[in-house]
Specification:
The protein is of the alpha/beta class. Helix content is 46%, strand content 10%.
């Protein structure tokens, strides 16, 4: 049995990706891939981890969970998704550590499923826009209150990934930048579900519907049908070309309204983010999915 677990991060279109994968659930089940609805496992896994509180689980705890989550016996891969798994927005900076709960959650997950092949999938995002959106979803009244001892320009996704790998070195991690999601959407669906290259995928353009005009979407669909791309890079080029010429401007321009982030801080955080992606690409057991490659 394999478990593909999309663990977030918060505010990176997680539920939208799950909905796109669920569109293919019936077809994928024929290939031995189960994509259960979130109501079957999110609360169950959360409560199981909380109840253990660091203790060792029973030897059959994982199998009991899988039997509850998956109805079909002829399944080789289970796809789970919860962008609040490693933390809800309120707890992202608890104790002054960026996603400090992540190692404990992943370590416990491995203990629950000790003999199961697990793969983690994580979307990251420019800390500037990430902070703005997660702050809005928290109970904090200001950015300093939300961050605690953490400075905005100290946020590093590479720290989170490194701590997860230290907690469970054998678990591979797939990473992508949320800013690239519109180009990568069908690849993400295929990669996380393990769908074969021959499997028709529904919802591969879902992420584009809000950021490209209707005229642009019709043109893109016609282009893809009439001139099927020979590679993923070709597909990315086609999408990027239509996106550039038919973008819905108000949907892709993220205005930063946080008073605590001046122009200099925003530039510094963005530069750090770019370097951070490069650092993550060099980590063992981590694959970063980038467009045009």
């Amino acid at each position: 049995m394999q478990i593909a677990f999309h663990i977030g991060a918060n505010c990176t279109n997680g539920d939208r990706l799950l909905k796109s994968m669920l569109k293919n659930a019936d077809r994928l089940l024929q290939e031995g891939v189960a994509v259960p609805g979130p109501g079957r496992y999110r609360r169950l896994i959360r409560e199981t981890i909380a109840a253990l509180d660091g203790a060792e689980p029973d030897h059959n705890a994982g199998q009991v969970l899988l039997d509850t989550i998956v109805e079909n016996d002829d399944v080789d891969r289970v796809v789970l998704s919860n962008d609040n798994f490693i933390s809800v927005p309120n707890g992202i900076f608890n104790d002054g550590v960026f996603y400090g709960q992540a190692p404990t959650k992943i370590r416990t997950l491995r203990r629950i499923f000790p003999d199961t092949k697990i793969a983690l999938y994580l979307a990251i995002r420019n800390p500037v826009t990430f902070l703005q959106e997660t702050l809005e979803r928290s109970d904090a009244q200001s950015l300093p209150e939300y961050l605690g001892l953490t400075r905005p320009d100290e946020i590093r996704w590479s720290d989170v990934v490194r701590r997860i790998k230290e907690a469970a070195p054998d678990i591979p991690i797939g990473i992508w930048c949320d800013e690239d999601s519109p180009l990568l959407w069908e690849q993400l669906i295929r990669g996380i579900t393990g769908a074969s290259s021959q499997t028709p995928i529904e919802g591969g353009l879902d992420m584009l519907t809000d950021i490209i005009t209707r005229r642009g979407m019709r043109r893109l669909q016609n282009t893809l049908e009439q001139s099927p791309p020979k590679s993923e890079a070709d597909r990315h080029e086609m999408i990027a070309d239509i996106w550039e010429r038919h973008a819905v401007a108000e949907q892709i321009e993220h205005e930063v309204t946080l008073d605590d982030l001046d122009a200099g801080m925003i530039a510094r955080m963005t530069e750090n983010y770019d370097r951070d992606v490069d650092e993550i690409r060099g980590m063992k057991g981590v694959e970063v999915l980038l467009p045009f490659q």
